[in-house]
């Protein structure tokens, strides 16, 4: 950790925390971000957002610009997607988080998003890191597929060094030899980050596992290990999703997860509050 | 999973469970196995065993035959170690689990051990698997450092095919690119095994992380993810341990962990009972 | 390979080849790209370029924009570096290859470079891929640290789909558990790419190993496995290099490597020609 | 490398070399070991052995005891297989190499084999290492699927420490995230071992790649990188092989490989001699 300064516990003993909408990130309450992988249409998203909010979600997620391995896959609705996401956020009273893939889109994305997401494939897109470091919005920094904990913290350091200290780290699974799951959730990263840094950290069990049946137990594991929140993919009809259907919860399963997380949170001295 | 039969959920819907001493493995109660990496001396081990029992441990672990990367490292006390371990088990009223590294030692180890451990490096020592399959003792089968979930279940299949159905799987971390932790605890393996197999599964957060500070949060994560128990290294004086000191809890930290696990277990519908 | 079309052997049976300066890339002659990791100063680079050309290098490499893990490391001279590189190319009669990290810099970099390099960390920076796909310059596409062969080809597909078919793939080592080398040169990727695709592929033994002593044997291995060329780091004084010194050859060792590659090339039916 | 002594270059500057039959292992000549994955029947093996010898192979390989992931796969002919292998070796004038999986079989295997193979899955079967260390036969020690170079050398150290200095290391691919190949041939391990140790090292491109089309280029790469020999799977009818058919060369392709290796060997100052 020789090259990190601003992100370290040595630099700041107490946890970083800040408000996003009415939610406090990085403190005792656990923050749940939920929504579809990609924004697909206005009606569905508003309906889903209202359900998610009622089940206890705090922040709405949804992709308008989607990084896709193949150039021929659905890559999101672009600006139109941003507008729909913002509308669904407003309708449900939730702040929204969405990915920015290119520094040239930053101003536009920032006009609609409450949290700017930097995706795994861009964790070491250093010019993008510097640009989001200059914006007055919280940043959700996903860990790269094969990034070490140290490299991940250095990526965060780029953002803090550029002037933005509201960074949320997100563990979303690393690439290993195991093929039963899409990636391997590195659960140890959660307490390791807590030891090394003052920044909040959440987990994304949906991308980590790629299998919706595993999302519930992995979400619980992440909270038990000390995560400050979760990023969960929910889709009204996972089998029809344009991307990542197999890892999406139905609204019913999301509601069940929220109910099961509540006693777990109190068992470890955290809270899971209904959004106000 | 084409080549597995006996270990699969298709073959047997309900969870396998069986008694080891007075503890039920594979059912609602969580089973805690604790003790030092290696048996070092009689007095210390008996003292430690009594403490562990009082803190709520159910089964005593300790190595008499230690697989060591270097031929010049301390490799255990051998038969003498087995005798000490059995004595400490008897003094504290706990069954004991210890590793068998060679089929030629099997009879001797089985004379002292209540559970036979097959270590990571021997997960695909197929002749050893066949031999422990013929013994009338439960087997703790650790996952190989780079074994897939499928290969691990096939290793268990060897034991069941040879006639022994009392197998406990143990997730102990896999080898990845990350170097901050000794290995990467594959937390997803726990619900994955529960989905694919009826066999009980426990986690070893000590070997998985190699850092005692991470043992507490990882133990909680494993229980939250659905593990049936834990294997925890505890040493009266970790800094003087002949092996694996940096990953061993002190008895005080172990007691604290046990106290913190209790509410967590009930939050997810399990129990953590004082040994009877 | 379901999502690839333009890059596949099915699409085009014969190898893609094209001229860069006077060198033919993707045909029988082997193409050597050599130079320092980062452009540091004018005098040194021109001196080095003349030496490299005399030893038989065909293309000059040198970084002006350097992706660095830490925000506090030397990140290149920027435009000034591009100018020095172009001057050294002209002085020595070699075309130049250099990295472009950000779509916003593309026009500027393309004004000086003969080949545009997309680095490992940007292999899935999809907007950058689309932009270099619209430029009329060959692109050197490095494999991502944990990219599968399929993902790498899909990244190339982005460039071809955008209209640029002059893509050179570069295997530069993948991330594995082994720590003796910086990365693990995936030598199998070379014949695998040749089987799956018509695009030329070269190897970068310097980044792959991180150790100059291994560059010579790995360069030979890559040629023997069928690589169309090499990317080699050379520095006049590796111990004083501002980045990647430990993996840089001295000019003397580079000259020795070139002499040793010549008989190897003919042994496998290729040629290593002096640049004209 | 702190825990290694006997295997290091510091301990012995000059390369270890020794005779196996009429072949010198670890010196200028390259040694080719070839044969089927498993011994299947007498007639076929003798026929194949004569062909291999004529094409220039020096040592005959073939498995009688096969480690198999599934308990239900073909696991070799056992003693009968050893007898057939020895007969084929005698008929063709070649020494034979075969795997020993269990210390209890050691005497029996050593009665037939000229080289004792310790397989990947047993690389850290420490009691087996100690036992082959007491036998007066050369040992072929395959690298474990996820063993570091350091751990591999320590496994060799076990054998040397037990008294047997005739150890041949064999790189056979490591486990990584890449799925196009069965394993990833770690070509860097060859020059790394040459730097760190005086022991001979060969490569097994068949197991490393799992695809016969890649065996030819990988064999060349290994020789170019400095390997002292090769272990190649050849089967008279790969499509009918009881194990590892997809990675086996036909005799015709083996003959072609041998012809192509000869000029390569001389290009790097080695020789590939017809067996005497």
Report on this structure.
4 copies of one chain form a homotetramer. In chain A, helix 4 (126-132) crosses helix 5 (149-161). Chain A has a single domain (18-267), classed as TIM Barrel, CATH 3.20.20. By secondary structure, chain A is an alpha/beta fold. Chain A has helices at residues 42-55, 79-92, 106-112, 126-132, 149-161, 189-196, 205-209, 212-224, 251-267, and strands at residues 18-20, 23-25, 31-35, 59-61, 96-99, 115-118, 139-142, 167-171, 201-203, 229-233. Chain A has 9 helices and 10 strands. The first copy, chain A, has an 8-stranded parallel β-barrel, surrounded by 7 helices. In chain A, strands 1-2 form a two-stranded antiparallel ribbon. Chain A is globular and about 50 Å long. Chains in contact: A-B, A-C, A-D, B-C, B-D, C-D. The interface between B and D is medium-sized, with 30 and 30 residues.
CATH architecture of chain A: Alpha-Beta Barrel
**Count of helical segments of chain A?**
9
Q: How many strands, which pairing sense, and closed or not: the largest β-sheet of chain A?
A: 8 strands, parallel, barrel
Helical/strand content category of chain A: alpha/beta
Distance between the termini of chain A: 39 Å
How would you spell out the order of helices and strands of chain A?
EEEHEHEHEHEHEHEHHEH
Q: CATH superfamily of chain A, called what?
A: Aldolase class I
Count of folded domains of chain A: 1
Q: Return Rg of chain A in Å.
A: 17 Å
Shape of chain A: globular
CATH topology of chain A: TIM Barrel
Largest interface: pair, residues per side: C-D, 41 and 41 residues
% residues in beta strands of chain A: 5-15%
- The count of β-strands of chain A is 10
The residue fraction in helices of chain A comes out at 25-40%
CATH class of chain A: Alpha Beta
Whole-number average pLDDT of chain A?
A: 96
């Amino acid at each position: 950790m020789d090259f990190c300064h601003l992100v370290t516990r040595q630099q700041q003993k107490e946890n970083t925390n800040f408000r996003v909408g009415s939610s406090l990130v990085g403190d005792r309450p656990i923050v749940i971000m939920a929504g579809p992988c990609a924004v697909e249409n206005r009606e569905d998203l508003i309906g889903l957002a209202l359900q998610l909010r009622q089940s206890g979600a705090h922040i709405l997620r949804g992709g308008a610009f989607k990084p896709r391995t193949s150039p021929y896959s659905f890559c999101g609705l672009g600006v139109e997607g941003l507008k729909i996401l913002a509308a669904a956020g407003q309708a449900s009273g939730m702040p929204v988080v969405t990915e920015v893939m290119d520094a040239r889109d930053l101003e536009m994305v920032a006009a609609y998003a409450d949290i700017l997401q930097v995706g795994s494939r861009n964790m070491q897109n250093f010019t993008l890191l510097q640009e989001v470091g200059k914006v007055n919005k919280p940043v959700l920094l996903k860990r790269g597929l094969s990034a070490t904990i140290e490299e991940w913290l250095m990526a965060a350091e780029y953002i803090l060094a550029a002037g933005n200290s509201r960074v949320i780290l997100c563990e979303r699974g690393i690439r290993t030899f195991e093929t039963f799951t899409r990636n391997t959730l590195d659960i140890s990263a959660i307490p390791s980050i807590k030891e090394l840094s003052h920044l909040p950290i959440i987990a994304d069990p949906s991308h980590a596992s790629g299998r919706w049946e595993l999302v519930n137990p992995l979400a619980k594991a992440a909270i038990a290990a000390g995560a400050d929140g979760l990023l969960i993919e929910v889709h009204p009809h996972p089998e029809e999703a344009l991307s990542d259907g197999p890892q999406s919860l139905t609204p019913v399963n999301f509601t069940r997860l929220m109910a099961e997380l509540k006693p777990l949170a109190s068992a470890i001295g955290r809270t899971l509050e209904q959004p106000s």
